[in-house]
Amino acid sequence: MGANFSSCVCDGNDDGGSSMRPRLGDIPESCVAFVLMYLDPPDICKLARLNKAFHDASLADFIWESKLPLNYKFIMEKALEDDSFVAELGKKDVYARLCRPNLFDNGTKEIWLDKKTGGVCLAISSKGLKITGIDDRRYWNYISTEESRFHMVAYLQQIWWLEVEGDLEFQFPPGTYSVFFRLQLGKSSKRLGRRVCNTEHIHGWDIKPVKFQITTSNGQHVVSQCYLDNPGNWVLYHAGNFDSKSHDDLIKIKFSLTQIDCTHIKGGLCVDSVFICNSEGKMV
């Protein structure tokens, strides 16, 4: 029966036959929206350009609410607290707004959603970390740079006792989260429009490894060690993972980078930031 019906609609030879051919625009908007709900956000946006029916269907709030984290209202309070128009946004606009980097906590932290998965990603700048000796210019100083999303890094000239700590209290949507320290051995700059990196002050990192630690308020604890290497390049050092079981739980996470063996000095290290990202997200 289906084949006969199809031939009646699509194969007419009279002048009105072509006007009876089914088109994408004839699919009910509600049906299109229901299908779009099962696609990733980038695919939804691509299909929205097909025609008006797909475009209108792609604006449905229930589609984008299904892509947002369960605690997206908490994230909005953190990231968009200064935007008075947020309450008027549709869910698609909320998703798009949260996928852009959003500064909070006096510009020392940044939050965004992965465009494809909706996973939560956070970054904490060097200004948002507690660094032992940071106020003593003999040891540390801040350097402006375009190579940091915060446009500034902390540079260690030399020290006996390396200790960099941070903490964050946040409602993490359910999932596994990875913690990374973004570090570089050497101090980079621009010379005649080209990137150069001064590595002459790098010392002490090949003697003993640095230690990373992560602790959470719900009892998780991770310790790892590694040697810092690859001078002149920014490296994401994986400190460890932690899990969140419920989007309603307010988890306080503490993380640290230490090398407190006072038998030797070390120096020539740039500390940019700490990333906390859902394991399915991208640190862009």
UniProtKB/TrEMBL annotation:
Transmembrane segments: none
Pfam families: PP2
F-box domain location: 21-67
Signal sequence region: none
InterPro entries: F-box-like_dom_sf, F-box_dom, PP2-like
Top-level lineage group: Eukaryota
UniProt cross-references to PANTHER family, sorted A to Z: F-BOX PROTEIN PP2-A13 (PTHR31960:SF3), F-BOX PROTEIN PP2-A15 (PTHR31960)
Full protein name: F-box domain-containing protein
Taxonomic source organism: Lupinus angustifolius (Narrow-leaved blue lupine)
